[in-house]
Amino acid sequence: MPLIKEKTYTVDDIYALPEDERAELIDGQIYYMAPPTRKHQDVSMELSSQIKAYVRSKGGQGKVYAAPFAVYLDESANTYVEPDISVICDKNKLTDKGCKGAPDWIIEIVSPTSRRMDYYTKLFKYRTAGVREYWIVDPDKDRIFVYHFVAESAEEESMEEYTLKDSVKAGIYDELVIDFGDMDVE
């Protein structure tokens, strides 16, 4: 019996979705996204605000975008993601539609429905696309995982683990430290 071929989707299929539906496209497969919780939004706003304030205070080395913001990780038409927070240092990657290529820093805030995507699928996609730093913030598990992908070889890449009470240094900026314990998150 022949195998049934799965449909492969493109960015055009994402654009054709109804306005009230959000989804991401990874390797031709559509992944629908549930609306974020209030706590998710609190964390996103706190992080975005702190990063943007730091970037602004240092003369604007980079742009900070919170979801929904389109990121086209590569030249193919079968991958489109909307990270919770994207930091892009090379303004040449920015278009009116979003970011063409890998952002320098991506932060994903884990929701119960996004856990597998954030920890596995996106981790792999972001690393192979050239993202320099990836943070997984998991409020339910009180954990932050910081991945540094800028090493010369895979053996030199690193992962650090923190709690939501810790201060975490951003790797792409010399002086930016995020104090999670000081955040106004309920």
From TrEMBL:
<dbReference type="InterPro" id="IPR011335">
    <property type="entry name" value="Restrct_endonuc-II-like"/>
</dbReference>
<dbReference type="GO" id="GO:0004519">
    <property type="term" value="F:endonuclease activity"/>
</dbReference>
<dbReference type="Pfam" id="PF05685">
    <property type="entry name" value="Uma2"/>
</dbReference>
<protein>
    <submittedName>
        <fullName>Uma2 family endonuclease</fullName>
    </submittedName>
</protein>
<dbReference type="InterPro" id="IPR008538">
    <property type="entry name" value="Uma2"/>
</dbReference>
<keyword id="KW-0540">Nuclease</keyword>
<feature type="domain" description="Putative restriction endonuclease">
    <location>
        <begin position="12"/>
        <end position="154"/>
    </location>
</feature>
<keyword id="KW-0378">Hydrolase</keyword>
<keyword id="KW-0255">Endonuclease</keyword>
<dbReference type="InterPro" id="IPR012296">
    <property type="entry name" value="Nuclease_put_TT1808"/>
</dbReference>
